[in-house]
């Protein structure tokens, strides 16, 4: 299970990439895609939508279950990965790359400090056993 | 082979032949077919053979142990079926006047009464025709209650993360927002998190107790107090009523509204979505909103209560009086059991579950909540087997079919990794439970020695492993004649 060190994480298994220009990219972790199994549907957030941190904003559905995605930080949705519409399996294949879900313009950059680093997220996974 | 593929032009089955002389001239042109429906044309014998073959391929409680957790696949006594099929019941027209329906109305009235007593609720409506419809009726009544008080800010329903998916869906359907209440590591609702979550926005909480993780929530009184103090109502999902029948009453636990799955707890053969009946019971303050119709006793006779009697009702859930066949089976089942028999149902259901849990633990399987006593069902987690042998819960489930056991519920609730939710029910003999343990032990041995064998299962059923991912991604269930192009797969999901 890979956990890239340059990303930030949540306990609910989203990852966040700071793009350095006031925006972030959000997806689900390798662990999350593995636990869900083969994804069959992704419901994306609408571009322009305002989100608060921890808002349910997207849904990933596998043959096992449908799961909410919670926005790790607040802001305005600036892009959604439309390519997932026809190919939800991209998240299974490349969770941290082509499988990104949406981008957000941060409303409060300090919220990034509330997120977990790779080491802390690894500990979360270890605690879940 | 699909029955469509057996079709030959001109073949007819007399018993199913349509009435060709029917006059449809009063149907609006826009609603009439432009071309004939692509119905199969087969002989009566072909139709009989086709459906008999399908019934023989069916994996059912009448042929196999069926420990499908959360579904209560118990034996349904033949008496329920034969008595509910008496000609007086079967041939009754749903629009028959009250004066011609006193017999069935007496049954329904007594059923309302028995359900009130066994659940400890103030009043019961039999109208909802399924569990999910009972849920919808329940949350609609919660909404009607707050609205009638002018309490319009209560827009949020709390739902534990382990709940059945129908709970949040019902709340959304009724116009609420859903907030998740987390489950603690011991299987009980996390009370501290619940206290943080309630407030003036709280309309209510939907709880299943015993919960979907197979344990009785010991904090139920604290939960009830917390939600009630915040001004919210308590909804009881009756999915697991089989565990507490005649022992604990949701009304006594402080619940304001409950739905029951009569097809599960009160014995109707069910599966694949029906048939069902989902009566709702309520506390006194919710009584005005009960769905209609209700049956009232009026001296020596019975009468229907409708909108005129109950102006604040949330309305009708179905045409006529509900799913009569299921209600009758439940009535007969309850009459056969009596109060004493109902207690035995829950006693044997929990005894069987705890026996099976203990035996599986002794055989080396890992319980999800080892420190907890099982209710009428329990969860084992195969994450160790998945890690060590690469054989997951679904592989075990499929291989069980080869051993003659219907698979337990897999991957629900999702918060337990690689889980099987196992509900033996009260009607299984000890030998069936022992046989199941032996099969599980044998499968784990195979997983260790020949994992590919388990991953390739099943081998003995009419079909091998189905491609559930492709079925979900490219759903295509419409049959088309070979001469026509197949329909395009629908968009994503189901």
Overview of the structural elements:
The complex is a heterodimer of chains A (129) and B (494). Helices cover 21% and strands 33% of the residues of chain A. Chain A has a single domain, classed as RNA polymerase II/Efflux pump adaptor protein, barrel-sandwich hybrid domain (OB fold (Dihydrolipoamide Acetyltransferase, E2P), Beta Barrel), CATH 2.40.50.100. Chain A has a 6-stranded antiparallel beta sheet with strand order 1-2-3-9-8-5. A 3-stranded antiparallel beta sheet of chain A has the order 4-6-7. Chain A is an alpha+beta fold and 129 residues long. Chain A has helices at 30-36, 83-86, 89-93, 118-128; strands spanning 8-9, 14-18, 23-28, 39-43, 50-51, 56-62, 66-70, 75-80, 102-106. Chain A is built from 4 helices and 9 strands; from the N terminus they run E-E-E-H-E-E-E-E-E-H-H-E-H. Chain A is globular and about 35 Å long. Chain B is an alpha/beta fold and 494 residues long. In chain B, strand 4 (202-207), helix 8 (220-229) and strand 5 (233-238) form a beta-alpha-beta unit. Chain B is globular and about 70 Å long. In chain B, helix 2 (78-84) runs antiparallel to helix 11 (324-362). A 7-stranded mixed beta sheet of chain B has the order 1-7-6-5-4-2-3, sandwiched between helices. In chain B, 37% of the residues lie in helices and 11% in strands. Chain B has helices spanning 44-57, 78-84, 87-90, 102-119, 131-148, 166-173, 191-197, 220-229, 250-253, 262-265, 324-362, 383-389, 393-402, 430-449, 451-455, 468-473; strands spanning 123-125, 156-160, 177-181, 202-207, 233-238, 257-260, 280-282, 294-298, 301-305, 366-367, 378-381, 409-410, 419-422. The longest helix of chain B has 39 residues, at 324-362. Chain A binds chain B through residues 35, 38, 40-42, 61, 63-67, 85-86, 88, 129, and chain B through 165, 383, 411-412, 414, 417, 468-469, 472-473, 492-494. Chain B: One of its GO terms (biological process) is glycine decarboxylation via glycine cleavage system. Chain B: Pfam families: Aminotran_5, GcvP2_C. Chain B: This is Probable glycine dehydrogenase (decarboxylating) subunit 2.
């Amino acid at each position: 299970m890979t956990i890239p060190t340059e990303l930030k994480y949540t306990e609910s298994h989203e990852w966040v990439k700071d793009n350095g220009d006031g925006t972030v990219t959000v997806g689900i972790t390798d662990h999350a895609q593995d636990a869900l199994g083969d994804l069959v549907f992704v419901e994306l957030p609408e571009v322009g939508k305002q989100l608060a941190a921890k808002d349910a904003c997207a849904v990933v559905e596998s043959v096992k279950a449908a799961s909410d995605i919670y926005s790790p930080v607040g802001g305005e949705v600036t892009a959604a990965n439309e390519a997932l519409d026809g190919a939800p399996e991209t998240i299974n294949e490349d969770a941290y790359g082509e499988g990104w879900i949406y981008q957000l313009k941060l409303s409060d950059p300090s919220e990034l400090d509330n997120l977990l680093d790779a080491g802390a997220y690894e500990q979360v996974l270890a605690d879940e056993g | 082979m699909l029955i469509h593929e057996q079709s030959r032009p001109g073949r007819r089955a007399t018993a199913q032949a349509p009435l060709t002389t029917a006059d449809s001239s009063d149907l609006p042109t826009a609603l009439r077919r432009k071309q004939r429906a692509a119905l199969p044309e087969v002989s009566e014998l072909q139709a009989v053979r086709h459906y008999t073959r399908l019934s023989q391929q069916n994996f059912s409680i009448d042929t196999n142990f069926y420990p499908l957790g959360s579904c209560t696949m118990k034996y349904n006594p033949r008496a329920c079926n034969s008595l509910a099929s008496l000609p007086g019941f079967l041939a009754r027209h749903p629009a028959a006047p009250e004066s011609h329906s006193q017999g069935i109305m007496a049954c329904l009235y007594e059923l309302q009464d028995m359900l009130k007593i066994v659940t400890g609720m103030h009043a019961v409506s039999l109208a909802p025709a399924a569990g999910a419809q009972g849920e919808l009726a329940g949350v609609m009544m919660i909404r009607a209650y707050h609205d009638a008080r002018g309490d319009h800010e209560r827009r949020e329903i709390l739902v534990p993360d382990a709940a059945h998916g129908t709970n949040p869906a019902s709340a959304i359907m009724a116009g609420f927002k859903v907030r998740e209440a987390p489950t603690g590591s011991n299987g009980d609702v996390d009370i501290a998190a619940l206290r943080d979550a309630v407030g003036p926005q709280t309309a209510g909480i939907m709880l299943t107790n015993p919960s979907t993780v197979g344990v009785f929530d010991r904090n139920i009184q604290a939960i009830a107090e917390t939600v009630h103090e915040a001004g919210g109502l308590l909804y009881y999902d009756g999915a697991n009523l089989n565990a507490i029948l005649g022992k604990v009453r949701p009304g006594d636990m402080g619940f304001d509204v409950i739905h029951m799955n009569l097809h599960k707890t009160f014995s109707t053969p069910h599966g694949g979505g029906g048939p069902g009946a989902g009566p709702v019971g309520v506390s006194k303050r919710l009584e005005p909103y009960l769905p209609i119709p209700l049956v009232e006793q009026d001296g020596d006779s019975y009468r229907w209560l409708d909108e005129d009697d109950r102006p604040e009702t949330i309305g009708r859930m179905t045409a006529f009086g509900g799913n009569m066949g299921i209600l009758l089976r439940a009535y007969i089942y309850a009459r056969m059991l009596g109060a004493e028999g109902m207690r035995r149902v829950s006693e044997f259901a929990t005894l069987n579950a705890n026996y099976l849990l203990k035996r599986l633990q002794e055989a080396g399987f890992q319980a999800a909540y080892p420190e907890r006593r099982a209710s009428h069902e329990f969860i084992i987690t195969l994450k160790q087997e998945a890690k060590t042998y690469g054989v997951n819960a679904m592989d075990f489930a499929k291989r069980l079919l080869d051993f003659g056991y219907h698979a337990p519920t897999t991957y629900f609730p999702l918060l337990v990794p690689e889980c099987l939710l196992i509900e033996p029910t009260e009607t299984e003999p000890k030998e069936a439970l022992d046989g199941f343990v032996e099969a599980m032990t044998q499968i784990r041995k195979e997983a260790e020695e020949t994992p590919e064998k388990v991953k390739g299962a099943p081998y003995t059923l009419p079909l091998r492993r189905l491609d559930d991912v492709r079925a979900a991604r490219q759903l295509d269930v419409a049959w088309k004649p070979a001469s026509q192009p197949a329909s395009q797969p629908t968009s994503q999901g189901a």
